[in-house]
Amino acid sequence: RHIKHPGYKALVDAALNDINIEKLSQMPATLGYYGKYRGGALAGAACIAEMVKQIGCTYVTHYNGLHAGNIDWSLLLTASLLNTIGVIDYITPEPPFNKTAVGIERGYVSVLQSILERIVYTNNIDISDIDVSRLLNTIGCSVAKRTAVRATSKEGILLRHTLSMYAELDMFDFGLSEMEPDEEESAKEEE
Q1: How many CB atoms lie within 10 A of CB 86?
Q2: What is the number of other CB atoms lying within 10 angstroms of the CB of residue 91?
Q3: How far apart are CA 166 and CA 34, in angstroms?
């Protein structure tokens, strides 16, 4: 309901169909960064979308003290929801999770681009090339450590830093869940 742009809404609806939701619920978001557990792709996308919405709302409500905080919500939320859809072709669907041959050859952002283009064209989604490019740039800059894509919009900056915060929290929690009970108590005492 927050995605008003008809092309982005149609893309999200087509990309997050029942089949892909099921796939994402069984796959990690990444192999070594965050959400590296079964279901991490779907959980990560949902959590990041909610976090980015909350952070964006706070920014818009309070601005930054100098400039108006207008945000393209359709772009931001679409990018947040679809930032992990590429794992469907990038990571093998069963444990032990590994990169697929195409994932090794092309890298995540290229695989993601192919998936999004395939969804647009096979579903006859009415969306401009400019809007698809803006979406790919926004998602691409969210993985800046790996793609060297610089954020060129508020939406890209919000997604990158929200994803970074989510990833750090997720890795912290995952690290705690991997500890033995004695180690976890020691870690809590050190805080």
Answers
A1: 23
A2: 23
A3: 8
* Other C-beta atoms lying within 10 Å of the C-beta of residue 6: 12
The span from the CA of 164 to the CA of 189, in Å, is 26
Q: Which residues of 137-176 are buried (b: 16+ CB within 10 A; e: fewer)?
A: bbbbbbbbeeeebebebbbbbbbbebbbebbeebeeeeee
Cα(45)–Cα(29) distance, rounded to whole angstroms? 8
Q: What residues have CB less than 8 Å from 70, skipping those under 6 apart?
A: 60, 154
List the pLDDT tens digit at each of the 191 positions of the chain.
789 999 999 999 999 999 999 999 999 999 988 999 999 999 999 999 999 999 888 877 766 555 556 889 999 999 999 999 999 999 999 999 999 999 999 999 899 999 999 999 999 999 999 999 999 989 988 874 555 556 678 898 899 999 999 999 998 887 766 655 555 555 555 55
Nearest CA to 13 out of 72, 71, 81, 110 is that of 81
Strand partners, 99: 91
* Residue given tokens 């792709």 in the structure block: 41
